[in-house]
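FAQ: What does the model actually see?

It sees only this:
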Amino acid sequence: MNQFTKIEIKKPIKAKPHFYSVCLEGLQQIAKDYGYNLVVHGSMNRDLDLIAVTWINEPKTHFELLDAFSEYLGLPLDRTFEGTENYMHNILPGGRDAYIINLNRGGKFNGYLDEQYYLDISFTPTK
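And it is asked to produce this:
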């Protein structure tokens, strides 16, 4: 190989932002139908960070919206024996409720190591 030989370096395809972008419009329409404005924050390189802001006086509950998102994404609804919601939950600064919807948490698919895909949704507090 001489100094003028072109070496082709393949850059990795960043599939996550593309996938999340495809999901976003449908999720935003569902949020609107349930009384929320859904906005994105973050790079979408790891997960899809969303903020649900109440847009009407009496929106549906967090769990109704999360269930609608899960159904739209083709995921089984994750319920406990008592029938209570079982999404991963955390309280964030400012009193925001945050939930995780897991899409894929690793494993092999056709010989390719899939990374984690998930939605991280926080709800702004209401009065």
